[in-house]
Each structure stands twice: as C-alpha cells, then as structure tokens.
Amino acid sequence: xxxxxxxxxxxxxxxxxxxxxxxxxxxxxxxxxxxxxxxxxxxxxxxxxxxxxxxxxxxxxxxxxxxxxxxxxxxxxxxxxxxxxxxxx
Length: 89
Prior knowledge:
The chain is mostly helical. The chain has a domain at 41-89. It is 75% helix and 0% strand. The protein has helices at residues 13-57, 62-69, 73-86. α2 (62-69) crosses α3 (73-86). The longest helix has 45 residues, at 13-57. It starts with 12 loop residues before the first helix and ends with a helix.
C-alpha cells in the first residue's frame, strides 16, 4: 500500500514538478513586475519633487501646493525633504 504525504495528495511527481515550474515562472514574472513598479514609482516621485520645487521657486507656497494636491503642508515638506536627502543637501 502506498501512502502519500500531505503535500502531493496522489499527484504524480511529474505533474507536481510541472506545477511547481509554472508557479516558479509566475513568481519570476510577478517579481519582475514589482521591480519595474518600484522603479517607476521612484521615477514619478522624482518628477513630482522637481515640479513642486519649480512651483515653489515661482512663488507658490507649500500651503498652496498642499491645497492643490489635497494633502497637508507637512506632507509637502516631507516630499521635498525626501528629494533633498537623496541629493545630499
């Protein structure tokens, strides 16, 4: 009598290996998509800071930007500070 472990429930080893390979392939796809999303997020954050800095240089206040974006002035300060830290200011 053959006793199957709880992880294969009678599935043949070949079928199990094929299923695992499919799962690994999907994991790789998801990982690549997550890496690309993180890269794009950082790119958009840089662009957002550049635009905000340009508007501030043109006379907009942090309060003005906060109102336009629907966030607090403190959130604007954090966004700007994050860019300054990355540039070593």
